[in-house]
């Protein structure tokens, strides 16, 4: 829960200091994904919730 605030989920990737940060936010029927590298904004993608959930489930099924 410490990664969740202001309606966003923040996930950091890196060794000691986060190098990449990915922010997920739900806006209506969409998931907005923003990415940052070294605290600089890299890009933003807006995906339908249904499409995002199908992709996530497919990824998890491949890991089982």
C-alpha termini separation: 25 Å
Number of strands: 5
Give the overall form: globular
The main sheet comes to: 5 strands, antiparallel
Order of helices and strands: EEEEEH
Strand order of the largest sheet: 1-2-3-4-5
Structural class: alpha+beta
Q: Tell me the number of helical segments per DSSP (H or I, 4 or more residues long).
A: 1
Helix content: 10-25%
Spans of at least 5 consecutive residues with low confidence: none
- The average pLDDT value, as a whole number, equals 88
* Rg for CA atoms: 13 Å
Strand content: over 45%
Record keyword descriptors for this entry.
64 residues, alpha+beta, 5-stranded antiparallel β-sheet, globular
What would your notes on this structure say?
The protein has one helix spanning 49-63, and strands at residues 4-5, 8-13, 20-27, 30-37, 40-48. The chain is an alpha+beta fold and 64 residues long. A hairpin with a 2-residue loop joins strand 3 and strand 4. The protein is globular. It starts with a strand and ends with a helix.
Give a quick precis of the structure.
The protein has one helix and five strands, in the order βββββα. The chain is an alpha+beta fold and 64 residues long.
Strand and helix layout:
Blueprint: E1 4-5, E2 8-13, E3 20-27, E4 30-37, E5 40-48, H1 49-63
Antiparallel strand pairs: 1-2, 2-3, 3-4, 4-5
């Amino acid at each position: 829960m410490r990664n969740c605030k202001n309606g966003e989920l923040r996930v950091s990737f890196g060794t000691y200091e986060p190098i990449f940060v990915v922010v997920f936010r739900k806006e209506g029927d969409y998931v907005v994904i923003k990415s940052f590298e070294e605290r600089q904004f890299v890009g933003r993608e807006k995906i339908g919730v249904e499409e995002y959930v199908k992709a996530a489930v497919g990824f998890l099924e491949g890991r089982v």
